[in-house]
Fold this sequence. Notes:
2 domains, alpha+beta, 40% strand, binds flavin mononucleotide, Nucleoside Triphosphate Pyrophosphohydrolase, Pnp Oxidase, Chain A, 308 residues, elongated
Amino acid sequence: xxxxxxxxxxxxxxxxxxxxxxxxxxxxxxxxxxxxxxxxxxxxxxxxxxxxxxxxxxxxxxxxxxxxxxxxxxxxxxxxxxxxxxxxxxxxxxxxxxxxxxxxxxxxxxxxxxxxxxxxxxxxxxxxxxxxxxxxxxxxxxxxxxxxxxxxxxxxxxxxxxxxxxxxxxxxxxxxxxxxxxxxxxxxxxxxxxxxxxxxxxxxxxxxxxxxxxxxxxxxxxxxxxxxxxxxxxxxxxxxxxxxxxxxxxxxxxxxxxxxxxxxxxxxxxxxxxxxxxxxxxxxxxxxxxxxxxxxxxxxxxxxxxxx
Length: 308
Ligand SMILES: Cc1cc2nc3c(=O)[nH]c(=O)nc-3n(C[C@H](O)[C@H](O)[C@H](O)COP(=O)(O)O)c2cc1C
């Protein structure tokens, strides 16, 4: 059920799905005292003329200073400035107490150590619902290479942190079909059954993950050709299986089993068992195909056939 647009809480949560940067918007009050608040409603508006906007709550204690028209600056916070963002988002006697700042070319306070800043003359202040849109004409700006601080679903995020946490696309796993003399290496799957040696592909990429997987088996084997690519709807991952003929060595774990229905009976994952049963059949005739599909449905393409 779609929550009513009038439900501020779910509306705020929905806004939170949009990952933003974090800024501190600053100006000087009538006494020349710095004033500022944390904002993520910042957006570029126009390049020529150079305009940007930020939206301030109509009930904000800082609004009078901004509406007075002395101009304002948008300080784009760097990833290490989360505490500063919190300071300028909470009521405080003097938010600038421990902040190094200088006046910008247009006159608004520029906070030290930011990722970028824009110093503006106030072009327009447009009431919009429970906020006022401040449109600024940029009189000066600068950008650095410092990664910015992000805000996502009510939490601060940083590019480094996000990159590590961010899923690298769909979960990709690889398995190595290490074959030797009509048998294949199976290992304990930790579920009381057996499986091919498998690994999740991280930022190192498929090739490096496969090389590491083979090395971990203790066998000498070539990272071979793709044998099967399928979307595993149960485990919600992409599965790529490689045929890797093993030439020597003793497995560090697991054991070789005959490529036959009996030998493969202990495999827990039905999609994997069916795949190896296909290999057993194809090994009989020496004609191998590549499977594309899901863990349930797909097709085998043989050499020279067009992928349909
Ligand atoms: C990440 C973040 C983004 C915010 N964005 C805005 C914003 O765009 N506009 C706004 O008016 N308040 C925003 N706020 C809330 C103000 O920073 C907060 O209400 C602050 O106390 C306002 O100060 P003031 O009342 O002294 O002006 C944001 C707060 C956080 C933590």
